[in-house]
Structures are given as structure tokens and as C-alpha cells.
Amino acid sequence: MDINNYLHEKRDLVDAFFKKYYSRSHIPAVLQEAMLYSLFAGGKRVRPILALASYETCGGNPLDIVPYASSLELIHTYSLIHDDLPAMDNDDLRRGKPTNHRVYGEAIAILAGDALLTDAFAILADPSFSSGITPSNLLFALREVAFASGLDGMVAGQVQDILSEKKEPDTDTLFFIHTRKTGALLRASVRMGPILFGSNQEVLDALSTYGEHVGLAFQVIDDILDIEGSTEELGKSIGSDEKIKKMTYPRLYGIQKSKDIAEHLIADAHEALSIFGSEADTLREIADYILMRRS
Amino acid sequence: MDINNYLHEKRDLVDAFFKKYYSRSHIPAVLQEAMLYSLFAGGKRVRPILALASYETCGGNPLDIVPYASSLELIHTYSLIHDDLPAMDNDDLRRGKPTNHRVYGEAIAILAGDALLTDAFAILADPSFSSGITPSNLLFALREVAFASGLDGMVAGQVQDILSEKKEPDTDTLFFIHTRKTGALLRASVRMGPILFGSNQEVLDALSTYGEHVGLAFQVIDDILDIEGSTEELGKSIGSDEKIKKMTYPRLYGIQKSKDIAEHLIADAHEALSIFGSEADTLREIADYILMRRS
After folding, report:
1. Quick one: which of B177, B185, B182 has its CA closest to B252?
2. Cα B289 from Cα B295, distance rounded (Å)
3. Any CB–CB contact under 8 A between A105 and chain B?
4. In whole angstroms, what is the distance from residue B284 CA to residue B138 CA?
5. CB pairs under 8 A between A and B
6. Would you call A151 and B117 a contact, using CB atoms and an 8 Å cutoff?
7. pLDDT band at residue A233 under the 50/70/90 scheme
8. Which residues 6+ apart lie within 8 Å of B68 measured at CB?
9. Interface probe, candidates A121, A167, A174, chain B, greatest B C-beta count within 10 A
């Protein structure tokens, strides 16, 4: 299997679902337009793909859970729109395009984010998207996604991130921010597979550990790319973390040590998959892809 | 039954649930503090009370669904925080206290709203809060709340409200805004009762109609109170709609005709309850309370 083909193919499934889900016109038009602007701004669909691959590893057919996996991208997209706002990171550029509020204004950007978050839960609460998933498992998955996104997850990470700007980085705070702000939803994405499939505790635990390590590695590499990447590759301004003195791994450990940490995390992610045979090969390749990515 | 006692008693149940639910300290502390600041700013808990009364009308014990009913107040509170933001209505005062962003700043206010919205769904997805509700009915209720809150509900209403500022009011746009921005969640609150109880379609339809009329009446009366109420009674600046030329019923119809419309809507709400006997008396009294309220 070529991992790039796999990623491409799964991304197309997610995009096709969104096109269908949002094919009906909603009023007022500008709201849906603002939502779709950010949703189709070139995201890699990493979270949905992790959920699909994880479901496949458990023995399921990924085609059966595309809507549920896609809901993760709605939450990711809402978080980017709100993070970019003037009151937060005040970013003008995201994935090579003007940020949502630069195009639609702050009010619509905030509300587009709110609606994307809400739609994620509307989709996760709809059993008609799949015949094979029990209502109980669907509730379990939805609860996981909510916990990963809210007061103990992504929002907490974003608040701590803001509070920590311009402060000297320390290990505990940095770990808190990265595991909440990015790690929690990535972990929940991986856990969605075994939860929807109804896997046993051993499988759920192994994939949770994989998700934790991959999730943290993802953000450490993001920090590195913010320094080493090029604007063309990243589609956003380079050095933006440094500009507002974000708490990052390179700021605390330097570039080389940060790279070592990311490599160790990916090695630990591989280790967590040791209970699986070749059925986890895709997850292994995704871990390596996350380590090697340039954007 | 004294309706004021009933409202008081049910409000205490909701408040007690929130105190328990948020009794654990979350990090960073300021996020939870900002959430609780608005959650305990003196809300009347109209939406949870409608859900509890509706569940009782269907034959259920309201004590069995307090967490699910309370989740509606989390969504209402999030919407108030975001509506008050400088980019939206730019309000300084809400229920007699400085608005969330005036106390915590815009970034924290936006994120506190996000976390409240997310928690609503986390609670609705948790079957451990009640033994008698089936997972399917819980998913149904959650989906209803999500639809009422998002792209086809509350958020759409708020976007249209913003787009319509300073424009001449017309019947269709006004109806659109009021039924989406306020009506949709109030209707969903009433529908939560029969949905969680598993009532038949006739009961669900009757209560939906009741909820629609009560929901629209609620906002028409809000418009009137914004002109006729006093700052002490309302806890917010009077005439704030007029100041930013909001599209309201009094602006289109004048005060007296708006009052007539509200009275008709409440009469229609009563009519919708005609399939019920005395078991719907509480809902009848709540409809009258909504018509007569001064804040």
C-alpha cells in the first residue's frame, strides 16, 4: 500500500461526504458559505483518516463510518476559525488563504465556528448514517469527542496557550497545552475506531496509547515546522509562534532535541501497536507520515 | 399549584445539577470561572423548566431528566456570551452584571461559550444520568437540540439578525429571525419531554405546536420589554434594540399590535394542549407566565 494513495483516497471520501451533507442551501447563505470556505481550505483530514484507519484496524469497513469520522474535521475546522480571530492569535493567513474573519468579518467567523461545532454533534447523533453501529456506541463516541474538545480538552489547551504567551516555557505547562490543544482530539479520533466497532478493552487501550503519542508528536512537529518550514509549504506565516512568544517545544528544548522527542513519540506509537499484526500497518505508516510531513 | 413556586423549585434543581457537575476544579481555572460566571448570572432557566414540565405532562418524573434539561441552559448561556461580544451586539450589561467579555476579555469569553456548548452535548450523550431513557431516544433528543442550535436554528437566526440591522423590517425576515434565534431552542426544549419519554406522534406534534407558539411569543415579548421594561427589571440597557436598529416586532407593528400578536400566540399555545387534560396544566401556566413576565 502506498500511504499517499491511501491518504488521498480517504480524504476524497471525507470531502465527498461534506459536499453531500452541505448540498442543500441553507439561509442565510453567507453562514454556510463561511463554513464551507474554511472546511474546503485544503485541510489534510488527518483526524477523520485516523478514525477510518483505526476502525479498519479493529476489523471494520471504513466506508461504514465516513460521516462520523468526518465530524472530527468539523470540530478541527471550528477550532482553527476561532483560534485565528483577532482576540486570539490574530492570524491573517491559514493554509495559504485569508483567514475566515478576514473574509467574512469577526461576527460571521465566530458564528460559522459555532455552527460547525454544532453540526459535528448533529452528525454523531444520527444513527441513520450507519446500520452497523449501536446507539450506545454512538453515544460513547460522541461523549469522547465532546470531552476531547471542551473544558478538559481542546478549549482548555487554547486558554492555557493564551495565558502562557510571552512566559518562559516549562515542561509541565507545555505538555498540558500540547496534549489538550491538539493531542486530545487526535487521541479521540483514533479511539473512535474501537469505540464504534465495539472492540475490547485491550484494543481500546492500545489504540489510546498510540493516539496519545501520535497526537503529541503531531504538535511538536507543528512547532518545528513553524520555524523550519516555508510559507509556501505551510500556507501560513512562518515564525508566527515566535512573534507572539507562544510556548513551544523548540523554545524550551531547541530544534534538535524537539526532533528527538518527536521521533521517540512516534517510536512509542509503534510500540503501542505491538499487539496487532499487519492489520495495523496503515496506522504505522500514518505515524511515520506525521513524523516526516513538511506541511 | 402556584406557578412561581413551581418555577422556583425547578430552577433550584437545575442550579443544583450545575453545582454538582462543575464541582470538580478544572485547569486552567479562569475558563471554568468564566463559564460559571455567566451560568450563574441569574438566568430564569426557562428552557430546562419547559423540558421538565413537558416530560411531566407526558407522564414522566422530571427528576429523572434534570441533567438533560439543564443542558439546554448551557446552550442558551453560550449563545448569550457570544451574542454580547463586541463583534456582535457589543453589550456591556447582561442581567444586571457586566457581560462575560467585559470581565474576562474577548478570547476567554469566546472560549467559555465554546466550552459551554460542548458540555451541553457531553451531558446529553451520557446515559448514566438516567436509567430510564433509551440510548436511541437520547440520540434523538441530542440531534434535536443540535438542529435547533446550529445552521438551521439559533446560529442562522443570529446571522440573519446581524445582517438585518439598520434595515426596514419585513414580516418574513422578522419571522425568520425570531423563530430561529429564540424559537428553535424553546421548541426543542418542549420537544425534549416527549422525545425522552418516548411518547407517540400525536403527543409529540401537539407539544411541538405548543413549543413553536410559546417560543415565538417569548421573543415578541422580549422585544416589547426592551422598550417598555426598566433597566432594574431587565438587568440590561433598555432600548438597546432600537440603538442598533434591530429588526423587532414593535418596530414593524408598533407596541399594541405586538402585544396582540403575543396574546394570540399564547392562545394558540393553549389550543395546542387541548388533547391533554389536567396533566398539561403546568405547561398552560408557563405559557401565561411567559405572556405576563416583566423581565
Report:
1. B177
2. 11
3. yes
4. 26
5. 156
6. no
7. low
8. B51, B123, B124, B129, B130, B133, B138, B141, B192, B196
9. A121
From chain A, the residues in CB contact with B156 under 8 A are 26-28, 31, 115
Nearest CB to A143: which of B125, B160, B163?
B125
Tell me the C-alpha to C-alpha distance, in Å, between residue B56 and each of A275, A292, B18, B61, B199: 51, 58, 21, 6, 12
- Give contacts of B 82-101 with A, CB under 8 A: 82, 85, 87-88
Of B27, B88, B117, the CB nearest to A156: B27
Q: Which amino acid is at A174?
A: L
pLDDT, tens digit, 9 for 90 and up, residues B101-127:
999 999 999 999 999 999 999 999 999
Judge whether A244 is closer than 8 Å to chain B, CB to CB. Answer: no
Residue of B nearest to A180 (CA): B27
Which of A111, A160, A173, A185 to mutate to probe the B interface, most B CBs <10 Å? A111
pLDDT digits (tens, 9 = 90+) for A51-91: 999 999 999 999 999 999 999 999 999 999 999 999 999 99
Q: In the CATH hierarchy, which top-level class contains the domain A3-292?
A: mainly alpha
- Domain residue limits, chain A: 3-292
User: Do residues A210 and A273 lie in contact, with contact meaning Cβ atoms separated by under 8 Å?
Assistant: yes
Q: What's the DSSP call for residue A65?
A: G
Cell numbers for B139, please give them: 440520540
Question: Which residues of chain B does A35 touch, with a Cβ-Cβ cutoff of 8 Å?
Answer: 151
Give B230's contacts (C-beta < 8 A, 6+ positions apart): B238
Q: What ipTM does the predicted assembly reach?
A: 0.96
Span A33-55, average pLDDT: 97
Rounded Cα distance, A120 and A115, in Å: 9
Q: Is A152 on the interface with B (CB under 8 A)?
A: yes
Q: Does A111 touch chain B (CB under 8 A)?
A: yes
The whole-angstrom separation of Cα A206 and Cα A191 is 10
Per the CB < 8 A criterion, the answer to whether B115 and B121 are in contact is no
Note whether A255 and A224 are within 8 A (CB). yes
A136 CB near a chain B CB, below 8 Å? yes
Higher pLDDT, B225 or B235: B225
CA dist B225 and B255 (Å) reads 10
The Cα A38–Cα A95 span in angstroms is 9
- Of B7, B51, B6, whose CA–CA distance to B214 is shortest? B51
In whole angstroms, give the CA distance from residue A138 to residue A159: 29
Exposure on the CB side of residue B43, measured as CA atoms within 13 A: 26
Q: What is the DSSP letter of B169?
A: P
Whole-structure pTM over 0.90, yes or no? yes
CB–CB contact A139 B138 (8 Å): yes
B177 touching A (Cβ < 8 Å): no
The pLDDT assigned to A245 comes to: 84
Q: How far is A275 from chain B (nearest CA, A)?
A: 30
Confidence at residue A218, expressed as pLDDT on a 0 to 100 scale? 97
Other beta carbons within 10 Å of B152? 22
